[in-house]
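Our collaborator T.R. sent over the components below with a one-line note: 'Predict the complex.' Nothing else. No constraints on interfaces, no templates requested, no preferences about which chain binds where. So this is a plain run: every listed entity goes in together, and whatever single assembly comes back becomes the starting point for the next discussion.
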Amino acid sequence: MEFKLKPIGIIHTPYKSMVEAPYQGKIAKDVCLIEVYKEYEDGLKDVEDCSHLILLYWLNKARRDTLLARPPHNHKIHGVFATRSPHRPNPIGFCIVKLLERKKNILKVKGLDAIDGTPLLDIKPYSPKFDYVPNAKVEWLEKAEKKC
Amino acid sequence: MEFKLKPIGIIHTPYKSMVEAPYQGKIAKDVCLIEVYKEYEDGLKDVEDCSHLILLYWLNKARRDTLLARPPHNHKIHGVFATRSPHRPNPIGFCIVKLLERKKNILKVKGLDAIDGTPLLDIKPYSPKFDYVPNAKVEWLEKAEKKC
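Returned assembly:
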């Protein structure tokens, strides 16, 4: 069984490689441009109502043949599903960005960790009403941060 | 250009159709089972460290040929990228769930809106450090809720 994705746009960022890209969108300070292809522009109606957007994108530089990852926070090996490593069986990137401006099919955003030229898959409105869990924890990450 | 996704597991829920499924995972009270296929089980190492998980899944009952949606909250038409409608060009479902228990390749979770038999695409750890924006707003949703 296989499912086919089509890019709905392309992401323009100042980051030319994984090494240059911030390890999390939350710490990214640069302004990036999301170009939604003209044939999908109607899907953007009222998107300017959203202060923040969830972006899904295709990590086309990532490996798909690994199930283990060693995150930058510590030197331990975890399963990829317990990490945010780009290298995973279905390399779908996920980031919450701030929408600064919309001009037709171009969105100006902040807080993105994607490499320049990354294919865009989907845009969803972010709402803390749906998408916020206050007391959520990732134990290995908490422990790694305490050691820093 | 096209990208191919492989299911890494299957989602078992009590919801047999879109009508039965809650419109948002956050309001779902039922316990659901995530079956990760055996060949991907190694990717779950340390997943029990996560109190909450981001699930991505393939909305195989959704339409892909529409760019407009009329959400249940109001009677206005919005672009699909300004809504959480399942009907969108790349129908990838997104939900943050509470992890109740892991037994080998089976995860018991709460807070999921997917239909029974939905193919699983990815699991990522949820952390409010990365994934929480306190003052984010969706204007059309705010207005619709005020009218309720």
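Summary for T.R.: The CA atoms of residues 54 and 124 of chain B lie 5 Å apart.
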